[in-house]
Amino acid sequence: MDRLWAFLAAMLPALAALLVPMPAVDLAYQLRAGSEILGGPGIPTVDTWTFTVAGTPWLDQQWGAQVLLRLTFDAVGWTGLAVLRALLLFVTFGLVFGAARRASGGAMPAAWLAILALAAFVVAAPALALRPQLFAIVLFAIVLSLLVGRFERPNRVWLIVPIALAWANLHGSFPLVLVLVGLAALDDALRRRWPDAIQLAVVGGVAALATLVNPFGLDVWGYVLNLASNPTIASQVSEWRPPSPREGAGSLFYGSLVAFGLVAIGALAFARRSGRATIPTTAIAPLLTLAAFAGLGVITGRGLAWWALAAPVALASIVGVAAGTDVRRPGDASVAGPTWVPEALRPIPATERPRALNAVIVVVLLIAFVALLPSWRPVGPAGVPEGLLSHAPQGIAAAFSDLADRGRLRLRHNIWNPQLWGSWLELIVPDRPVALDSRLELFPPSIWADAETIATGADGWQALLVRYRVGIVVVSADQTALSQALAASGQWVAQYRDADGSIWTQILLEASR
Fold first, then answer.
1. Alpha helix locations (H) across 300-456?
2. CA separation for the pair 101, 261 (Å, rounded)
3. For 297, left (φ over 0), alpha (ψ -120 to 50), or beta?
């Protein structure tokens, strides 16, 4: 049964990934950047996709993830990207299950651990879109597993160095690797395992140096600090703001804080009744881990994913400490198999015989995985399987191609667009500059103020379109004020309209053809 629970902890998130659309808000522009990197120009250094901030320096720290995404897309298309997302989640939550099991030393039944891993998935779900962060999430889980298994295989912590190098070229969350190593080193120091603590300190130092092995050197650290302190980003994107308990993601996060806190307090109370210290030394580092990642989650919604991954392992460790079963001795084989391999993929111990019902459940879930593949779905107007992407209006994409073929659009026309669609338009209309996209750090507050004026049809919206030399306006269905203003102006005509939105061009331009 333990292996079945391990499989469920990994497989159910993978199935959910195939059911939920992939947001194109970040994904689409990552694909375009990957295409440019592989196709000749190399890693972008300035903006060439917009007319509002054209020529602005762009530090494309996520270039490695963009290359991986584009290679996958070129090889196996949209379905391949969906499968990649599912596999990354399978590995991540399989690793979380295995790390929590090892950390508890057998104090928690496999069913509880599976529930813990699945609860982590639910809390992290809003951050599990296919984008560079998802690669970082997998690396985070691998580092957790290596650190939890360090007592049995201490030399494998050196694998963290190449992981840090890769992480620094994939996503801006790479400083978290140093946080994890630092907490583990503190744990060893508190246990008076000085050689191990010193080794981890050295590993952390070398890993920090490894993060400088990238096309930008030390500037990647400046990039991270700029993103973390940029008030414009927080004002435009909800996930950069502190999570609200009144919203779904925030309520799940704060609920998990309460639940995990109560379990930790209960476990420590049990330990005290057993005659041990109020807070055993071995529980200090796990408690600090809970506090550190809870604090990160409270500060920014971007921290929810890291909390969801770190908290189950830290909580399992606290439960193990309370029960006196936490794995802390070299050679302890209470959990067999390599620490970086998800529990569901490890060889089945000879003492654990598979049951027919378990095999049936596994087969059914594998069949469900195949049945949910996007390749079975009808293809939309833009060639994407229906329901696979969100924030990617296929009708708008197909209309651009059709209007261009009929001579209704001209290459010199700037496109004003909803910010959430900017990434999609950059991918499908690469020869026309857009106004806004998902690289929020590039746009100054004045641009966002202008965008708000235009989106609401407020006084001065027409003058702004003239100033920016806009010849095409793309309007989403929820921008009713802008649609009404365009129609009432007598200067714009709707060339295309569907349930997602509409495309407008200037009547003056129409008359000049």
1. 304-323, 356-371, 394-405, 419-428, 445-456
2. 19
3. alpha
Instruction: Please report the DSSP string for 112-170 in residue order.
Output: HHHHHHHHHHHHHGGG-SSSHHHHHHHHHHHHHHHHHGGGTSGGGGGGHHHHHHHHHTT
Q: Tell me which amino acid residue 43 is.
A: I
Give the whole-angstrom CA distance, residue 292 versus residue 251. Answer: 19
Average pLDDT over residues 213-240: 88
pLDDT score of 327: 53
Phi, psi of 109 (to 5 degrees): -60, 155
Looking from the CA of 513 toward its CB, the CA atoms found within 13 Å total 10
Mean pLDDT of 317-346: 58
Give the 3-state secondary structure of residue 388: coil
Domain coordinates in residue numbering, the chain: 2-367, 389-511
Which residue reads 């100054």 in tokens? 444
User: d(Cα 409, Cα 77) in Å, to the nearest integer?
Assistant: 28
pLDDT tens-digit readout, 83-104: 999 999 999 999 999 999 999 9
Q: How many CA atoms lie within 13 A of 20 on its CB side?
A: 17
**Is the model's pLDDT at 337 over the cut of 60?**
no
The burial class, CB within 10 Å (0-12 / 13-18 / 19+), for 318 is buried
| Amino acid letter, 50 | T
Which residues are paired to 470 by β-bridges? Answer: 414
Question: The tokens 């109560």 sit on which residue?
Answer: 262
Summarised one tens digit per residue, pLDDT across range 375-401 is 999 999 999 999 999 999 999 999 988
Other beta carbons within 10 angstroms of residue 372's beta carbon come to 17
Alpha carbons 9 and 110: distance in angstroms, whole number: 10
